[in-house]
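Lay summary. Proteins are chains of building blocks that fold into shapes, and those shapes determine what they do. In this project we predict the shape from the chain. Here is one chain we studied, written as its sequence of building blocks.
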Amino acid sequence: MVGAALLGACAVAALISAAGRDARPEGVLLAVLAVAAGYACGRIAGALLPVAAAAGAALGIVGLALATRPGLPGATAVGPALPGDTGAYAALTALAVGFACCAAAAARRPTARLTLRLLALGAACAALASGSVTGCVAGSLVLLCSLAAARIRRRLPALAGLALAGGLLAGTPWAVAGGAVPPGPAASVEGPLTAYRVQVWREAVGVARTDPLLGAGPGRFGDLSATAQQSPRSDGKPHSAPLQQAAEQGLVGVGLLAALSGWLLYGLWRSPRPTPVVLSAAAALTALAAFAAVGNALSFTPVTTAAGLLAGLASAHAPAAAPVGSGLRDPRGDPRGGSRGGSRGGSRGGGGADGGG
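And here is the predicted shape, written in a compact code that computers can read:
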């Protein structure tokens, strides 16, 4: 209910911010719909076929990325090799590896677990073969986090660490654009991200200061940014989800984006799925947050849909047929059977790598 209310609030806030202006809120509405649909499908598929659904999603994402490169379907895919495409493909790779790792963590047979981890490694290698070094690195980090999660019993400290990392990454564009970073580190950031991106960050901060509460209106940054207008291949976006929210929807949009992130983390913490499944999904979503902080990955419908699907799979109730004693545990130490995964006690469950469901 909280998630539905937050998603509805995001849609309403976009319409309010666009009222009376030459704004284009359809991009925000499409993103909200994609996340909601993906999350609902993930909850259903995760309760019925957790391993098969996650493995199928991983294969589907890898196939989509390979078949559509260049030209990923999305809000900015109006031509090949646009500036935001690189981050979108890298984010898809991280999500594909996250799906494969979730399937491996939920599998019970060692052979199936090994096969699915090889699938995760193959997804990272496929990104490298297609020229996305960033995607390969991100996928490899997600895979390493998933392997480490097999030894973790308490998920809360790990989720808190991932949330802190995501928050620091989200604050980086603000710090660079606001001049809070010394010249040396700022130059090291500007080098790989290009001077164009840093300049549009600064202009996004300027637009946000003009109307701090509701912003300039969804889709209007490209009309207000001199740098974006002067660049012939600009997609009209500030290449940072937090800064885009601040510029186009003000503090209300930033607050709703932060609230959605917190809701997803809370849902993962309360998830009845085994801890390795939850942490694998959290690692992939953190990688997505990193790409969204310094790029426009969330402007692509396949990315937002896959993110919602992964969050839904990782927070779904355990299948009803799961045997008692499947490895789910209450944070107070009381064992919980897989068939009771939806109960209040088991909703915070940990569990080992062999956990049921």
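What the prediction tells us: The radius of gyration is 20 Å.
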